[in-house]
Amino acid sequence: xxxxxxxxxxxxxxxxxxxxxxxxxxxxxxxxxxxxxxxxxxxxxxxxxxxxxxxxxxxxxxxxxxxxxxxxxxxxxxxx
Length: 80
Description:
Blueprint: H1 3-16, H2 23-41, H3 45-59, H4 63-72
Helix pairs in contact: 1-2, 1-3, 1-4
């Protein structure tokens, strides 16, 4: 396999969230949709792939679903 395919699988898991059950599925969906829309406009898909990996590691270390679960989970000990 070419190294970018291995990198895409890693980015799918990181993007969705490695510590959630459906995280890799969500990451794969997001990445495939991005590839479809971006490849129409530019041939530099691998450059965008590297940028996505960098941004996910810096800003979303828990992934998209990990961020959503952490953000929208009610804080325990707080009463309504």
